[in-house]
Structures are given as structure tokens and as C-alpha cells.
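If you are new to this repository, start here. Below is one unmodified record pulled from the training split, so you can see the exact layout before writing a loader.
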Amino acid sequence: MAVHRPGRRPGQLAGQSDHADLETKTKDKVFVTIPISVQNRVRPEKVYDAFYKLSDPMQQIQAYVEQVILGHVPGMTLDEVFASQSGIAAAVKQELDADMAGFGYEIVNCWSLTSCRTRR
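And here is the target side for that same chain:
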């Protein structure tokens, strides 16, 4: 029996990169937009899981990224956010890799671009 997922060709699996601009409020009540990119790939030993456990893996990865960002940034001041962008990206990679391993994905790299946009 063949199962076809909408938006995906049968047998199509590949690593991808995804970029998102996430806006949240800091501890000192400044809105900041954090650009973050995530590069992932399918774990060779978990191809079946990667294909059948998630209908839209990129959407799921983005939801996890948002969850991690919203768990870290609101407790930081604006200066702390700018000073620890690489730490935020490392936290996203670590938590996301642990969460997505059960679905057959490995997070290869995660980085935050050096410029955040603010609005008050």
C-alpha cells in the first residue's frame, strides 16, 4: 500500500534549511525581531520515521524554534539578547535536536544572524 502525503512526492526526503524572523518582547519591554536559520537533515537510520511520522516537518521545526525562542528571550534584557545571540542559537539547536530525533531528523546547524531589529 502506498501512502502519499500532500505537497511531497513519493520517496522525497532531503535535508533543508529554514529561516524565520521571530518577534518577541524582552524583559525591559522592547520588541525584538530575531532572525534565525536552522539546517536539518534526515537521520539515515530513521528514514521511515522522517517520512511517516510528520506530515509537515518544516512547520513542526519552526514551531519548536518559536517555542525555544519564546522560552529564553522574554527573560532577557535587550542588551543580553544582543550579547548572547550565539547562545540563543546554541540553545535552539540543542533543544530542537533532542525533540526532532524521535521524528528522524538531525539538526545540523542553527544560527542567528547578527542583526536584530527592535521597536518600542
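Two things worth knowing about this chain: The radius of gyration is 16 Å. Confidence is low (pLDDT under 50) at residues 1-12.
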